[in-house]
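TASK: fixed-backbone design
INPUT:
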C-alpha cells in the first residue's frame, strides 16, 4: 500500500482528462502515490478512454452521478491508504507538487488537511478563484481566499509565500488524512457540489484540527469545468449550501442572529439580480431558501448529534469583520489590505 492516493472525480470529462491527466502522471512521485479516477457514471466513454491511454490509472466506477460530494464519498470507501489527495480533473500539476503537502501532513499530526497554491491555468500569473492561497470565512460565513476576494483575483508576486493556517482547503486540490475523512463520513452529500469542503474543514476545526496552506507546492486550475460561473444552478447551490454550512456548524449562541443577517443580505442579492435583469439568478436565491427550510429536519438532527460547535472567535482562519462590507462599500480588493487584527490566529 502506498502512502497517498491521488483521486480525480470525473463526470463526462474526457476533454479534461486528455489535457490534464498527463501532467499528473508525469509530475507525481509514483513511489509515493497511486493515481485513481472515480467515474461518476459518465456517458462520454471516459472509462474506455482512460483504459486505452492511461493503463496505470486505477478506475472506480460509480453507478450514478452523485455529484462532487457523494461521488467522492462512494469512491473513497474503496481506497485504503493514509492520505487522500482530491484533485479536480481540470488541474495541471507542477514538478514536485505533492511532496511538500505530504511532508507537512506527516510531520504534524494536528494537521487534518492542506492545499497548495492554486494559480489560473489560463493566466498563470494570477491566483485562481477556487482556493487561491488558502480559504477563510468572515463572521457571517462568507468564504474568501488570500489572493481572491469575490471576483477580484490578485497577481502572484510571492506575497503569500508562507505556510499558514487557514480555515478551509479547496476541493480543487486538497490533501486530507484518510482516517479523518472516513471518521467524519466524508463530505455531506446533501451539498451535492460547492462548499462541501468548507463544511468538512469546519467540522474538523471544531474538533481542534488544523488546516494549512503550503506555499511551495503549486497547481494550475482551469475552473468552471462542471458549472459555469454564470450558471443559475451554481447560484442556487452556493446560496443553499452556505445556509447549510452555517446551520450545521455555528454555535447556538449566535446561530439565529447570524442567519437573520445572512437572510437580509440574501434578500439584497435577490433584488440586485432582479434589477440587473437576471431573473433566473433571483429565482435561484428563492429556491435556495426554500430548499433550506425543507432541510431543517435533517439539519436539526445533525446538530443534536454533532460535536460541540465552537464560537467563530475561537477558531483560526476566521475574519471578525464583514468581507461583503469591506469589498463592496470600502472597495477593498486585496486580501493584504484587510485589517489583520480582525483575524483569529
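OUTPUT:
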Amino acid at each position: 500500500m502506498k502512502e497517498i492516493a491521488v483521486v480525480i472525480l470525473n463526470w463526462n470529462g474526457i476533454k479534461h482528462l486528455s489535457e490534464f491527466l498527463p501532467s499528473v502522471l508525469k509530475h507525481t512521485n509514483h513511489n509515493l502515490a497511486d493515481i485513481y479516477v472515480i467515474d461518476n457514471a459518465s456517458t462520454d466513454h471516459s472509462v474506455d478512454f482512460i483504459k486505452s491511454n492511461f493503463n496505470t490509472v486505477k478506475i472506480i466506477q460509480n453507478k450514478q452521478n452523485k455529484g462532487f460530494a457523494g461521488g467522492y464519498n462512494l469512491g473513497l470507501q474503496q481506497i485504503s491508504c493514509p492520505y487522500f489527495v482530491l484533485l479536480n480533473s481540470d488541474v495541471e500539476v507542477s514538478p514536485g507538487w505533492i511532496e511538500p503537502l505530504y511532508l507537512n501532513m506527516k510531520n504534524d499530526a494536528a494537521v487534518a488537511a492542506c492545499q497548495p497554491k492554486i494559480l489560473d491555468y489560463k493566466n498563470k500569473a494570477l491566483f485562481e478563484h477556487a482556493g487561491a492561497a488558502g480559504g477563510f470565512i468572515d463572521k457571517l460565513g462568507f468564504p474568501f481566499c488570500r489572493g481572491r476576494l469575490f471576483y477580484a483575483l490578485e497577481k502572484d508576486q510571492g506575497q503569500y509565500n508562507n505556510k499558514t493556517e487557514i480555515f478551509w482547503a479547496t476541493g480543487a486540490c486538497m490533501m486530507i488524512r484518510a482516517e479523518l475523512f472516513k471518521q467524519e463520513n466524508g463530505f455531506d452529500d446533501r451539498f451535492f457540489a460547492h462548499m462541501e469542503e468548507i463544511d468538512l474543514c469546519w467540522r474538523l476545526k471544531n474538533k481542534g484540527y488544523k488546516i494549512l496552506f503550503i506555499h511551495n507546492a503549486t497547481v494550475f486550475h482551469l475552473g468552471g469545468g462542471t458549472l459555469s460561473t454564470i450558471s443559475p444552478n451554481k447560484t442556487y447551490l452556493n446560496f443553499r449550501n452556505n445556509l447549510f454550512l452555517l446551520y450545521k456548524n455555528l454555535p447556538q449562541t449566535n446561530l439565529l442572529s447570524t442567519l437573520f443577517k445572512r437572510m437580509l443580505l440574501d434578500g439584497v442579492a435577490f433584488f440586485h439580480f432582479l434589477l440587473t435583469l437576471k431573473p433566473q439568478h433571483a429565482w435561484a436565491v428563492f429556491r435556495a431558501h426554500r430548499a433550506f427550510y425543507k432541510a431543517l429536519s435533517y439539519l436539526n438532527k445533525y446538530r443534536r448529534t454533532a460535536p460541540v460547535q465552537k464560537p467563530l472567535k475561537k477558531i483560526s482562519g476566521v475574519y471578525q469583520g464583514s468581507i461583503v462590507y469591506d469589498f463592496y462599500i470600502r472597495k477593498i480588493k486585496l486580501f493584504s489590505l484587510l485589517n489583520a487584527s480582525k483575524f483569529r490566529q
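COMMENT: The chain is about 40% helix and 20% strand.
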